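Note to self: keep these together.
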Amino acid sequence: MITLDEAQEEVLAACRATSPIEVAVSAALGLILAEDAYASEAVPGFANTAMDGFAVHAADVVSASQETPVRLKVIGTRAAGIAEAQTVGRGEALRIMTGALFPEGADAVAIVEDTRSAGDFVEVLAPSDAGQHIRPAGDDISPGQLLFRAGARLGPGHVGVLCAVGCASVRAFPRPLVGVLSTGDELVEAGPPLEAGQIRDSNRRTLLSLLERDGFRTLDLGIARDDEAAIESALASGVSSCDAILTSGGVSMGDFDYVKTVLDRMGRMRWMQVAIRPSKPFAFGVVGETPVFGLPGNPVSSMVSYELLARPGLRQIAGYLPGELKRPTVRALLAGAGWRGSRDGRTTFVRVGSEFGPDGRLTVSSAGAQGSHQLYAMARANALAVTPPGVTVEEGDAVDVVLID
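Structure:
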């Protein structure tokens, strides 16, 4: 057997990032920047008011109060988007709306709550300091400012900032296209009642869903029967169009060797026994230039293999930085019945539910039955508790937890 770290290192060594492309900012959500992004414009691009009110001279209203209001002549109204030249002189006020271009001459805003109308005049009931409620040009972003480093994942806020500085496109890594293939004569789709020996193909849809959740594009390669020609045809189709391939089934020592035979003929594969439970059997290699992940057929093993081995490699293909490839591991307290690690030298990843308790500490408890074929508990889990071989974990113990949701 090899360690999980060794298996992950082998995967990452062969998974290369796709070539960056120019992407419209409108389509860049979730992508990884391939180069630093700089501001070409200031934000805001002009001085504007942060409040509805009146543009005034601070010196004119320094003595204003409820008892002794200061009366100023209103010379007009300015809404956002109006840019006509207008200067506010001493003893004057310009009615102004939030976001409007701040006029020449004035240096403060008397907010509307501190004023009252008096015909062609306004009475100011409180002083306003110079600069108060005014947003200077470049108050948020300056021209030439570094906005985001290469390697940043573009979220909604990033997209908004890029739009605010007039950026129409960025250099980013495209979403990898990942093909998913199930293999086995026993597999059938949903529909007619099962016949003896048949099982529903849940793995393919589960893997496609995991990929879509994680922001990858997917290609459903269907089910290949236990026939070398059928398997080779499906794999060849996937390799010709995909950035990576996931297969499910046919990697255990006791399986029929159709998948192994075909993949060994098509590419450079390694058939591993990884010292983890579940998911001991795992295959990985390259067909042409396309990474191929051979995941176990048991449903839970397939999902755990994806989380621990395939997902880091796919994220590297998508351009993620090294520190963001693997799921975060945190400490949590066991809040229920305990368990014991395996006796065969493998690290066990126990499916658990995690939540924050009233004291703010993260707690976990078993999500249910832990068999590699028992998918229901995996569906209820949002974390994997890392349990070294032979270690007994009891209620109240601290455990390392890999957060998967």
